[in-house]
Amino acid sequence: MQEVNKLGTWSSHKNAGANPSPPAYPQNGTQLPAGMAYGRMLDGSRADFIYLYANPAFHALVGADALAGRQCADVTPQLLEPGLNVVSLFERVANSGEADSAEVHFAAAKRWYRLSAFRPQAQHFVACFDDITATKMAEQRNTQDADTLGRLLDIGALVLQSGTRDKIFGKVIRTAMAITRADFGNIQLLDRKTGDLHIVAHRGRFPQWWLDYWDKVAAGHGTWGTALATGQRMIVEDVEHSPAFAGTAALDVQLRAGIRALQSTPVVTRFGEQIGMLSVHFRQVHKPDELELLWLDLLASFLADLFAYLSLSDRLALNDGVMDSLYRTKVARELNIDLLKKQVNGLCRELGRPPVYPNGFPPDMSTLFDYYLGEMR
Asked: What is the pTM of this model?
């Protein structure tokens, strides 16, 4: 059996059988931008194969060199992972003779590939790996963007339905966590009298002692305080190597809580007034990408508008309470006057005089009191 070491060049292998016809594929695989591999399936209970050829792009894909003549399990065991289904596809194509394709994700390299395979001869396969990472990331981003927009609409609907603040803020935090794939999140409000930030809502399993520690943050203290003081977003990719936490008790607090990275975005009104902070936290070293940060900016602006709306609602509710109190006072006054009117009419009857108010109140309220006081004298 003849096997290929380099496209267009053939040599004998110690397991060679009958000489097959050379498979039809490009004569110079080194020029292909896609990864390409040619192999022969091995007999056995576990699917495996011998590399007969692999171009430079495939070597870069799997992180190995000089694959020709070597067994997959020895040099590229990652391809045998059950969840990847790469070798099972090779085996199916090599046995059936029917070309097949699939999308595969190499998690370690964070790359997506379109795998296409065909059989040039029995028990052999030729596979081509086209990098489709950009396309897959765009698809995932579109899905995430649609999800984020849906979440924003849900928050708006909840506000219009007079949802509680905890539910509204909770949805905002969940949205921020979904955008950045964070593990924790919280919202803080600025106390105008003290200049401190106070946690008003949080999601994720923050330890209570962590919440107690950070419940009161002054300007300039920690990432939240620094973001508040500067008015700029703060991103800490790794708290262990961040100047903001170096040599501080806050570093131990973050590490004990399992927090390795975080970001804090100031919540600023349309008039430039800082009113709070929106923060997310990560268990692993992490840095949000530019698009995620743009979404966080939009969410922070949305949150600022929510604060304004909720504050206005509170003031209106307070005004409603004042108006209700005034209305109740007016009703009580009218009832008291009506009672007084009845008492005056009763007094008139006792004196044998016609009632002063047979058809309602007199045109001048002073008449009632003058008459009443006159009779009392």
From this structure: 0.58
